[in-house]
Specification:
The protein has 227 residues and is α/β, with parallel strands linked by helices. The chain has a single domain, classed as Phosphoglycerate mutase-like (Rossmann fold, 3-Layer(aba) Sandwich). It contains nine helices and six strands; from the N terminus they run βααβαβααααβαββα. It has a six-stranded mixed sheet, sandwiched between helices. Strand 2, helix 3 and strand 3 form a beta-alpha-beta unit. Helix 2 runs parallel beside helix 3 and helix 2 crosses helix 9. The mean pLDDT is 95.
Length: 227
C-alpha cells in the first residue's frame, strides 16, 4: 500500500506569507494550476486511487477534487476529515508569519527561524499554546494535541485501507500538518513543504516507511501538458 500525502495548492494567505491554520481560504490561480498539473502528472503515470481523503478545509478539498478530475476519478468519493486539518495557530490566525516568528522566537523572519535556527513544529505549536495559555484547540494546539489528531487520522486511513486491501490512497492535507506527520515518522525537513507536493508513505509490519518527501516532480510533468 502507498499513501500519497499531498499538500494543497497555493492560497492567497500562502502568497502573502500569513499563518493559515483553521482559517479557510480559496486557492489562487497558481494554486489551481498547480493542482491540475499535479493531477496530470499523476495521470501520466497511469496512477489511480482506491480511496481519497482530505482535510475538511476548502483549500484541501478543492485540490483533491482537481487532482481526481485530472486522473478521471470524479466518481471516487472524497472523504473529508478534521483530523487532517492544518495546525491551529490560535491568536496568530491570519497574522503574517514574520510577526508570529518575532513574537514567539525573537527572530525577524519565519523562514529563517525554520531554515537557519532550526525551529521545529514542536517549537511553533508549543510556543503558541504556551504564550496564550491555550485551553482549547481553537486557541492554539500544543504539539502533542496536534500530533495525536494527525496520527489518529492517518492510522484510521491505514486500518480502513488494509481491511479493503487498497493499494493506492490519496490524502490532501496541509504544510505543517504533513511536516508533523513526517517528523513523527522520524524525518526532518530543513525547508517548508512546497504547495501541491507529494510525500509517499508505505505502511509496513513494523511501522510506516517514508518513501518520498516534498516531491514536486508530478507537478513539473503535468505542467508540460498545460501549455
Amino acid at each position: 500500500m502507498q499513501i500519497y500525502l499531498t499538500r494543497h495548492g497555493q492560497t492567497l494567505l500562502n502568497r502573502t506569507n500569513r499563518a493559515q491554520g483553521w482559517s479557510d481560504a480559496l486557492l489562487t490561480t497558481k494554486g489551481r494550476t498547480d493542482a491540475i498539473a499535479l493531477g496530470r502528472g499523476l495521470n501520466q503515470q497511469n496512477l489511480r486511487f482506491d480511496a481519497a481523503y482530505s482535510s475538511d478545509l476548502t483549500r484541501a478539498v478543492t485540490t483533491a477534487k482537481l487532482v481526481l478530475h485530472e486522473i478521471h476519478q470524479d466518481e471516487l468519493t472524497l472523504q473529508t476529515s478534521a483530523d487532517f486539518r492544518e495546525e491551529c495557530f490560535g491568536y496568530f490566525e491570519g497574522e503574517t508569519a514574520n510577526v508570529m516568528s518575532q513574537e514567539l522566537f525573537k527572530i525577524d523572519s519565519y523562514r529563517a527561524a525554520v531554515t537557519t535556527y532550526h525551529k521545529t513544529m514542536r517549537d511553533l505549536a508549543d510556543g503558541i499554546a504556551t504564550k496564550f495559555n491555550a485551553q482549547t484547540p481553537e486557541e492554539g494546539e500544543s504539539y502533542v494535541v496536534l500530533q495525536k489528531r494527525l496520527m489518529h487520522g492517518l492510522q484510521s486511513v491505514i486500518n480502513a485501507a488494509k481491511q479493503s486491501q487498497y493499494e493506492k490512497v490519496l490524502i490532501v492535507s496541509h504544510g505543517n500538518a504533513i511536516t508533523t506527520i513526517l517528523n513523527t515518522l522520524g524525518q526532518q525537513l530543513t525547508e517548508p513543504l512546497h504547495n501541491a507536493s507529494v510525500s509517499i508513505l508505505v505502511p509496513e509490519a513494523d511501522g510506516i516507511k517514508v518513501a518520498a518527501m516534498d516531491d514536486v516532480g508530478y507537478i513539473e510533468q503535468g505542467k508540460e501538458q498545460l501549455f
